[in-house]
């Protein structure tokens, strides 16, 4: 069987890792297409190296742009690639512009397309990721859902007969890397002492970075937290802070470059807590047993809210106290699977091939 994966942004490389290994173990022919949405070494290459993902077979090199320009550039380049490789399945991941471009190209060429991480919903129509998820789910032939909640959303939209629950491939990679990095103290960027309490933070979503007043209030709130905040700055955050003349220094914040995946897992495992607007990081904090505070009005990963592991604080009303709260004592019920989702993906694709 031949599967063609389309990826382009950092969280998709993480999801690709366990899937690529499962396909290799199953003896599938696997073509990897990188759209080039993320192109900085720290946002792309390090993930392929650290997670031992085979080099992409095709690199479209589209780079950054407005949503339409970026998605359109991918669409323009994908037809020829898909026609050349003629896979049994096109596999798209998550909710980025690379996801919707891949799904749309495949469906228009009458190629079977499967969506991994299907059925997530924020019900916030202002998020570009929400458009990407909904449109991809309705275009795809096979919907590979990570959770029961995602399955229920798909059923509500009339998509039950195309949906299969496979579990969450991010659990696979998170647990593998957690076990590999072990209990050692992480090497943290200068300014953070791993022997003392610290928080890990990332901020990159448009609704938090693109309005200067909003971004300023987030930076001020992080600077007021009563312990060091390791802010792993996405290029978008750096660009917006420079544009709006927002100084990232001056309080608790210690700014550093994005970390590779194993470094991130180690940093979170040893932290007192996480403050983020990233979907993946909310769930990684949960899987690693670290409390998370999410600077958004809603989350797709609603299971993380149970027992107080994750708390939403969009208005930044009590961030100083919330961010440093103690680790909950409630038991987690493993809603994201047992770390074997990628094998399930490989089996379901084989069982449903046309
Ligand atoms: C994208 C995804 C988002 C995901 C995030 C993970 C969409 C709509 N959004 O958001 O769902 O959570 O990736 O990181 O697809 N840039 C660089 N170097 C890079 C990549 C980006 O400098 O390697 C800068 C550019 O200024 C670019 C900006 O970051 O314009 C935004 O990048 P883009 O890929 O458009 O969206 P993300 O914010 O990364």
Structural features, described:
The protein is an alpha/beta fold and 354 residues long. The longest helix is centred in the first third of the chain and has 19 residues. Helices cover 41% and strands 15% of the residues. It has a seven-stranded parallel β-sheet with strand order 3-2-1-4-5-6-7, with helices on both faces. The chain has a six-stranded parallel β-sheet with strand order 10-9-8-11-12-13. The chain has two domains: 182 residues, 3-Layer(aba) Sandwich (Rossmann fold); 145 residues, Rossmann fold, CATH 3.40.50. The mean pLDDT is 97. The structure holds uridine-diphosphate-N-acetylglucosamine. The site of uridine-diphosphate-N-acetylglucosamine has 19 residues, from helix 1, helix 5 and helix 10.
């Amino acid at each position: 069987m031949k599967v063609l994966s389309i990826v382009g942004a950092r969280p998709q490389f993480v999801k690709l890792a366990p899937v690529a290994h499962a396909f290799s173990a199953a003896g599938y022919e696997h073509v990897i297409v990188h759209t080039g949405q993320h192109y900085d070494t720290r946002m792309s290459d390090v993930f392929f190296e650290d997670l031992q993902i085979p080099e992409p077979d095709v690199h479209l090199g589209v780079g950054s742009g407005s949503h339409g320009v970026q998605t359109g550039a991918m669409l323009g380049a994908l037809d020829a690639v898909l026609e050349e490789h003629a896979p049994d399945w096109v596999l798209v991941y998550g909710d980025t512009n690379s996801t919707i471009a891949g799904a749309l190209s495949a469906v228009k060429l009458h190629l079977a397309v499967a969506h991994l991480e299907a059925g997530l919903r924020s019900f916030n129509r202002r998020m570009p990721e929400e458009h990407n998820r909904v449109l991809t789910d309705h275009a795809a032939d096979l919907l590979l859902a990570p959770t029961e909640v995602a399955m229920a959303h798909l059923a509500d939209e009339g998509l039950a007969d195309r949906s299969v629950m496979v579990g969450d491939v991010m659990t696979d990679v998170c647990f593998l890397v957690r076990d590999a990095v072990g209990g050692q103290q992480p090497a943290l960027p200068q300014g953070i002492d791993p022997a003392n309490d610290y928080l890990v933070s990332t901020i990159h979503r448009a609704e938090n970075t693109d309005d200067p007043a909003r971004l300023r209030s987030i930076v001020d709130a992080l600077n007021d937290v009563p312990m060091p905040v390791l802010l792993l700055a996405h290029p978008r955050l750096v660009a917006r802070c420079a544009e709006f003349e927002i100084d990232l220094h001056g309080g608790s914040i210690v700014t550093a470059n994005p970390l590779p995946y194993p470094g991130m897992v180690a940093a979170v495992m040893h932290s007192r807590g996480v403050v983020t607007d990233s979907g993946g990081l909310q769930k990684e904090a949960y899987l690693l047993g670290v409390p998370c505070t999410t600077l958004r009005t809603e989350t797709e990963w609603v299971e993380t809210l149970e027992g107080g592991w994750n708390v939403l604080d969009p208005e930044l009303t009590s961030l100083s106290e919330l961010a440093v709260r103690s680790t909950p004592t409630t038991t987690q019920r493993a809603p994201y699977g047992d770390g074997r989702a990628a094998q399930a993906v490989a089996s379901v694709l084989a069982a449903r091939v046309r």
